[in-house]
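Standup notes, structure subgroup. Blocker cleared on the LARABZUK input:
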Amino acid sequence: MTGVRMSRVRVKICGITREEDLDAAVNEGADAIGFVMWPNSARAIDVERLVTLSARVPPFVTRVGLFVDQDAELIARCAPWLDLLQFHGDEPPEACEGYGKAWIKAVRMRDDVDLAAIEQRYSAAQGLLLDAFRPGIPGGTGETFDWSRIPRTLAKPVILAGGLTPDNIAAAITAVHPWGVDVSGGVELERGIKDPVRLQAFIRNVSNRGVTGEPIQ
Ligand SMILES: O=C(O)c1ccccc1NCC(=O)[C@H](O)[C@H](O)COP(=O)(O)O
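Run returned:
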C-alpha cells in the first residue's frame, strides 16, 4: 500500500547542552534545537555556551531559546544567536515581542486551561507548545497529559510536548495531529545528556508518520 504523505511532523530536540548531542540531533534530521536559558534548569546553558553551540547549527535548522520570566536584557543578549524564542513563564504578550524574533508560547495544560483564550491573548505567537502541568515546574517534567484535551479547533500550529518518548510518539501523533513535537527527557541518559540511540529512534519514529499518524509507506 502506498501512503499519501500530506505533510511531515516537525521535530524539536530540547535541552541540548553538548556538541555531540547537537550533532546527533542534526544528523538524524531534527528540525529544531532547543537551548534552555533558564538558569534553574539542570539543562541550562549560559550565553557563552549558547554562542558556541548556536554557531554549530547548520542552515535550515531552527535555534530555539527557552525563557521563563527572564530579564529583557538577557533575552536581548541571546537573541542574535537564536531564530525563535520560546516563553514558558507568565510573560504577557508584550514581553515576548521587541526582540526582532518570532516566538512561541508554551502552555502548561492545567485542568482549567482555556486554550482558545490563550490563543487570542497571544495572537502574535507563531505557535503554541502544549506541555504537561506540574506545580512549580515550568517545563521539562518528563510527564504526559491527556492528549484528548487538545481541541482540533486551534488556529495556531500546535507543538506537542511533555513526556514524549520513542515508544509513545507514534500514538501521540495519531491522537493529536500536531504541527510539531518536542522532546527532552524521553531521549536522555540523564538530565542534559542525550542518548544517541533514543534520539535516533525518536526522530525515526516521527519521520515514519505523516500528519494523519499513519505509517508512510
Ligand atoms: O527542560 C527544562 O529543564 C525546562 C525548564 C524550564 C522551562 C522549560 C524547560 N523545558 C522545556 C521544553 O521544551 C521541554 O522539551 C518540554 O517541556 C518537554 O520536556 P520533556 O517532558 O522532558 O520531554
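Discussed briefly. The first strand starts at residue 10 and ends at 13.
Next: hand off to the docking folks.
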